[in-house]
Amino acid sequence: MGQPESVLILGGTGQAGARAAAFLRQWHPALPLTIAGRDIGRARRVADELGTATAVTTDLRRGDLGLPADHHYSAVIAALWDNHLNGLRYAQRRGLPYLSISSGLTDIAPEVVAGAHRTGAAPILLASHYCAGTVVLAALHSARPFDRIDNLRIGAVLDDQDTGGPAGRADLQRWSTATSAGMVRRDGVFTWISGPGAQADVRSVDGTVVPAQSIAILDVPSLALATDAPDVRFDFAVGESAGRRRGEPASFEVRIDIEGAGRGGAPLGTSSYLVHPAGQCPLTALGIALGTERLLGLRGDAVAQGIHTPETLLDPAYAVERMTEAGAVFIDVSGVG
């Protein structure tokens, strides 16, 4: 395979985009990267720190993104909300793989329809899951000992001081405006819930119980359809993380509870935490980098055209290996409560 053209990272100056570029540089030192942002000075600083990278300004309101016609790329990565879908259309017109992380469950319909309109175009990876799909992959890795899964529940705590930069905060506001209802799978049926039924508690890794509620998130259908579990729920809490309660920086924490049967049919239940002491950004960036690596064919077989989600392309064991390298910690609390 020859050296690919540069990877265009829209939002490459943001926290997640810049960190994803750093992961790609670490894994593939010779991979050309193009850092795109509204501030050329900031883009150049990120590019200079990476090496083998260039900086450009883009205008997401324009079909050509404001880029010169003679610029060529190997993929388009939207590390921010591609609100006009011009990043996607730019990729489709040029036959380039595309990855997005900010549409969320409530905003993916235009991306899905755009993909259907260009069935012969390159692959689209919809990674608008929590932390760009890393939580789904961690849960699937935890599900390996099960022959049957009856119930899968995710409980996430996002520190209220770790909501990301302006783009990340805008995403949270947009999603909360779109719906206050949560989506669960209950008895095999995808169901919208609200009011008291959507309320829940998430137990933090230090035992503190944080009020939460079920949210509308792509992790629910991804996990339900990947595992065939009839009951799947994702509860989300915003508050003080265990890290800050210890007087340290805001930490990232997700609890994964799975119930079902093991290989021999005996009842089996597991509970574990995925924790990162540096908050949510490293895992979001890692999800972007893993998806980009896969779309480019730098790991695994060539990706077919069409619409994909992280769990359909990425190996959970490999993803967990990368998470651990990036500082994530997995804590087994099965039987603890």
From TrEMBL:
It comes from the Bacteria. This is Saccharopine dehydrogenase. It comes from Streptomyces silvensis.
